[in-house]
Amino acid sequence: MRNKPTFKINMPEINIYIVIIGIISTIMIFYNLYIGCLFFFGFIYIVFHNWRITNVRRKEWTKYIQNLSLDIDETTKKAIMNLPIPLCILEFDGSISWYNNKFCDITQTQDLLGMNIDSIVKNLNLRKVLNENKEMYTDISFNDRDYTVVYNVIKNEQGKSAKYLMMLYWIDKTDYLQLEKKYKDERNVIVLIQIDGYEDVLKSASEEKRPLINVEIEKILTTLEVNSKGALKRTSKDKFILIMDKQEMKKLENDKFAVLDAIRQIEHGNNLPVTISMGIGVDGDTINENLKLANGALDLALGRGGDQAVVKTKDKFVFYGGKSKAVEKKTKVKSRLIGHALREIILESKQVYIMGHKYPDMDAMGAAVGIYDICRSCDRPANIVLDSSNESIDEFVKRLNDSEYYDDIFIDHDEAIKNCTRNTLVVVVDTHRPNYTECEELLGLSEKVVVIDHHRRGVEFINDTVLLFHEIYVSSTCEMVTELVQYIEDDVKINKLTAEGLLAGISLDTKNFAFKTGVRTFEAASYLKKVGADTIEVKKLFNSEVKDFITKADIIKSTKIINENVCLAYSTEEMDNINIIIAQAADELLNIKEVEASFVLGQKNGKIFISARSLGSINVHVLMEKLGGGGHIDIAGAQLKDVSLKEAYRMVQNIIEQYIEEED
User: Fold this and answer.
1) β-sheet bridge partners, residue 95
2) Which residues are in the GGDEF domain (predicted)?
């Protein structure tokens, strides 16, 4: 409803009326003396009366204010004396000049006048208060209670001089802090648990023992659930979720997550140790936020190598457990587990033979030398099986033979076969195919074969291995061996030349870090550089002769473009290093615009070598597999026997055209 407008007339003060009357009486004197004088005397009376009334009122108001001040002072004194908050007044030297009853109660002392506050309560920084022009707060503990002490400096006027005092208010916040602590201790904590390398651990044990491993894991985690007064739920075959209070989580932290050690003690015939990774999300605003924090913590635990617990809050991480580092499939857990198992197998062996594939390249030779250094760190004799060198590794082999560190490192086929026994450890690197190995006969003589490879699995495979490290997503075998060196044990040391061989192998298979290069690849290269690898010396390992450049130029000249995006080329020259030259030519052909894949053929000693490269859109592994070869999606190869170069060229061309038709 609308309000009606109101009109208010502001009347002027009485003094204005008196002035007006005075002016009017003065004017009237000029017109009528008698009447004017009468009005003037009336004006004088009004002025006197107004002065007298004003004076009386001023005296009454002053008296009222004085009485009110006295009442307030008296009330203030009583209020301060009976204040429910402890209060004391100090001189600047710390002596107590006044206090109330509550202060006596907290100090449990009656006569406090003149005593110095430092003799009663420690940790009061009075000097700091003097340097501040504002209220200050200090939290202290006194007589098993927690207080916030408020400092306030007051000025007391005493004539011409002034005296300064400090008032200390003692606010008891013990109950609040206890309630806050209880609230924080009872907040939910989410723990995500994952069994590291679950499938590999189970496969490392006999089939009848695998259920025992599962039972033991669940038993330990159930004990953790009971002890932490939490709730445990298995979400998949290798993952669990545990919800507990923060107070119980702190107990786990105080014990340094002893459950990690308990899990590691599980042994039921498994060659790989059982370990878990734990991600703990805590102090999130909601349960959902704690779950996100736990997921991030678990990812970090796995990325650091597993076998550890990571506690994550919104602003920090805390790590407990393993010292391992990290995998492309999010974790390097498998590298650590394989490293641990490989060390145990090496320590159980009296002799170790290491071999790569036939016509070894720097990836195979670098990885072999890396395993050799691991064996030396384990104080076990080792040899690399190599019948003859080739141009791709000649420079590196020469450096190895010239170094006293690698004295008698190489052994030929005949001597290896002669000395190999059932207990000899044979480590195969950079291949998993028996007929591709340097000396296939050793696989039949030894019952302890370890395979370390990064190529896609083909039809042929080395069976009955005691340890298999096969990761197709890794850039090179040298990268895998570098990770083993890092995570196998802290005391494993490698020679500078070994580091350069490993770095050369990584550079070769990644085409100078252009293909199949992940975060792990750069971490491995960084580690090798840190332990002494010289990149200039690595580059020298790949220096070529002038005739090699001319051959590559002839190959590029022979190139045929298929479907506008596939290059097919060949070399008629028979050279010892033709397999290296055609590989380099295949890499060069990928520099042509719109070319997605390249295939280059060469011949040597009655064999046809094929190198295939791709930018990823064409799966060259599938194509080479049809010719009995293999490799990766973007780098692959094959070897053909009993066919001419012309026939092999036609076979490759037919396979390419067939692939294109199927894709269309």
Assistant:
1) 116
2) 186-314
Say whether 361 counts as a known binding-site residue: yes
Could you report how far apart the first and last alpha carbons of the chain are, in Å? 80
Range of weakest confidence among 235-249, 312-326, 469-483, 639-653: 312-326
From the list 371, 379, 351, 383, the residue with the least C-alpha distance to 488 is 371
576 phi-psi bin (left φ>0, alpha ψ -120 to 50, beta other): alpha
**H or E stretch covering 383:** strand 382-385
Q: What is the Cα–Cα distance from 651 to 639, expressed in whole angstroms?
A: 12
Q: Give the torsion through C-alpha atoms of 123, 127, 133, 136, to 10 deg.
A: 0
**Backbone phi and psi for residue 156, each to the nearest 5 degrees, phi listed first:** -110, 110
What is the residue-wise DSSP string for 496-517? HHHHHHHHHHHHHHTTTTTSS-
Distance CA 203, CA 300 (A): 26
Asked whether residue 329 is domain-assigned, the answer is no
Query: Do 333 and 307 touch, CB atoms closer than 8 A?
Result: yes
CB-based contact 331:300 (threshold 8 Å) = no
Instruction: Please state, as a whole number, how many other Cβ atoms lie within 10 Å of the Cβ of residue 150.
Output: 16
Task: Show the CA angle centred on residue 597, arms to residues 594 and 601, nearest 5°.
Answer: 130
Do 453 and 309 sit in the same domain of this protein?
Answer: no
93 appears as a binding residue in the annotation: no
Whether 509 has a binding-site annotation, put simply, is yes
Smallest CA-to-CA distance from 573 within 549, 591, 597, 590 is with 549
Burial class (CB in 10 A: 0-12, 13-18, 19+), 301: buried
Q: Which two tokens stand for residue 73?
A: 């002072």
The amino acid that residue 246 corresponds to is K
- Beta carbons of 557 and 589 less than 8 angstroms apart: no
- Residue 571 neighbours by CB distance under 10 Å: 22
- Kindly tell me if the per-residue pLDDT of 576 is higher than 60: yes
Q: How confident is the model at residue 115 (pLDDT cuts 50, 70, 90)?
A: confident
The reply to whether 113 and 140 lie within a common domain is yes
CA gap 583, 611 in Å, rounded: 5
Domain edge (last residue) among 321, 355, 380: 321
CA atoms within 13 A on the CB side of 609: 23
The position carrying tokens 């924080």 is 184
List strands edge to edge, sheet with 239-245.
231-236, 239-245, 188-195, 276-281, 308-312, 317-321
Per DSSP, the three-state class of 475 is: coil
Q: Are residues 491 and 530 in the same domain?
A: yes
> Checking phi first, is residue 273 left (phi over 0); if not, alpha (psi -120 to 50) or beta?
beta
Annotation-wise, does 175 bind a ligand?
A: no
H-assigned helices in 531-641: 535-540, 546-557, 578-589, 620-625
369 and 477 housed in the same domain: yes
pLDDT in tens, 168-224: 888 889 889 888 888 888 889 999 999 988 888 888 888 888 999 999 999 999 999
**Is residue 200 domain-resident?**
yes
- Residue 483 and residue 567 in one domain: no
